[in-house]
Structure formats: C-alpha cells, structure tokens
Amino acid sequence: MTSAAAPDSAVRLSRRDLLAIDDLTRAEAIALLDRAERFAPLLSASVKKLDTLRGRTLINLFFETSTRTQSSFELAGKRMGADVVNMAVRTSAMAKGETLIDTAATLNAMSPDLLVVRHASSGAAALLARKVSCSVINAGDGQHEHPTQALLDAFTIRREKGRIEGLTIAICGDIAHSRVARSNVRLLTLLGARVRLIGPPTLVPASAARWGVEISHDMRRGLEACDVIMMLRLQLERMQGGLIPSQREFFWFYGLDEDKLRLAKPDALVMHPGPMNRGVEIDSRVADDPRVSLIEKQVRNGVAMRMAVLEALACSRTTGETEP
Ligand code: NCD
Asked: What percent of the chain has pLDDT over 90?
C-alpha cells in the first residue's frame, strides 16, 4: 500500500535494542512498517529466502511458552538468511535474577548477533541487554511490553484501513496483565490513533489514566464509532483470583459477539494477538468470520514485520552506529 514510499534498504535505528516501543521514534516506526510492506509479498513467493542476514546468528531464548511469536521469529530469521538457534529453556528450573545473568554470559560467549527474549518478569529483557554485546529484542517481558506484536498489529491495521492516524481503536478486556496492550497503546498513539481501553475496573490499571487514552468500563458504549476492535486474552495464569466474577459473566459484559460488534462502525475490523479463549473474550462466530476478523492476517504479517526489525537491528550494528 505504501510501498512507493518504502526505503530500498534496511531501516537504520538509533538504538541497539528493541525493548519497548519508546526505543523507536515515530519516523523509525513508520520506516519499519514501510520496510515490512516490502517483505510481505515474499511470503507468497515460491522461493522465500533472502541472504541479507547470511552469516549472522539469531538466538531465540523463550523462558515462557510461545507458539506464534517464537515460530514467527524463527521463520523471519531464516527467511533473511540467518542461522537460527532455539534455546530450550524451562522456566521451572530457573530462578530469575542470577540464572538470567548466567545465561546471558553463556550466550554472549557464543557471539550471537541478535537475541530474542521472552520472560515472565517485567524488565528481564532490559537486564539481559545490559549483559550482552548483541542486539536484544523483547518478545514479551511479564506485563510490561511486547513491541514487535504492536508493530505487526499496526502494520496489519495500516494494510487493511490504509492509515492509522485518525482511527478509533478499542483495546478490550484484560488490560492489566497485557504487555500487548501497553505496547499497542504506545505505538498507536505515537502514530496518531485515538485509543480507547475497554474493560472492567479490576482489569484496567489505575496508571492507564496517564496513558493518553480514553477509558470505558461499559463495552456496549465503548464500542461506538470504533474502526478497529482489538480483543485481549484473559490472562488467567497472571491473576491472583477474584478479578472477574466468572468467565460466563465476563463474556456477557466484555466478550465480543456479533451483537456487540454491531455497535461499532459498520466496517469495523476485529483483532486478537492469540492465543484466544473462545467463548470467554471472543465468540467463534466473530473470530472466524473472514469479513471482519484479521486474526490470521496478524500471524502472517508478523513474519514480514519481524524480518524488517531483524534486518534493521543487524544492519544498524554493521555500521557501528549503535555500538555501546
Ligand atoms: C501474547 C503474549 O504472549 O504476550 N501473545 C502473543 O505474543 N501472540 C498475548 C497473550 O499471551 O495473551
């Protein structure tokens, strides 16, 4: 869509790592979206591989389970020609602080170029980044951030709606435990969208009042005039209990079904980062309706978006511009 304006070469980033959306300027974020637009057609080509990252090593270090994010980074790395290593780490065997630093030292000794980290503790990716000499990408740290998910979401919205600026985008459900919500609020407001958080008071953190967003505890009213509705997974594993009366009641008030969807704009589109709790935050009839659901496109676009991010970080390092 915006490929005419896309740069012909890798995006240069001013930071060595991508730990949070605040690591990017608005211009850098837009340049990354433009660059991903260049990679998207490659995914349906018969030969899908480039050699931009040939000779570079990408290590996937996932302390929390992941299906789509880990495989998306793996595919993106391989499509750019990098050697990709998936480290098998089991959260249960690892105590947080010290072990993370030990792991960092071990990995650093192998001289990787890119390290993709997911960890249950907020700040873990930043801690690791201080201990290694390669670029670190945060693939989700606790309830803090998940910047590449926000980038792929913004990329998907821009491809489908033609723009982000001026759109009204609702982010709904379990905001409190969601790193996806935090990164999306940062990025979508940076790109000029109007963001509305919708959820019960127990699942919208008090700090959200300072995020520059609208807040609604009534989903039916909150969905009015929305162009995009982003549903979030109810993160039961991060809840101490008591935050919602029951999953059935949650669905009645905050689950997206066809009736509630009708309250948004007639051409409203629906997103979900996955994995979904069907019948809890989203009804299958909405999630599986190709006229409104962008869920599969998000997964597909994720690979192109991550190719752009990997290329940008690896190539910014080549010039020595971002060396510490
Ligand atoms: C999210 C995550 O792990 O933060 N999923 C993802 O990356 N696709 C959201 C979630 O776990 O609910």
From this structure: 80
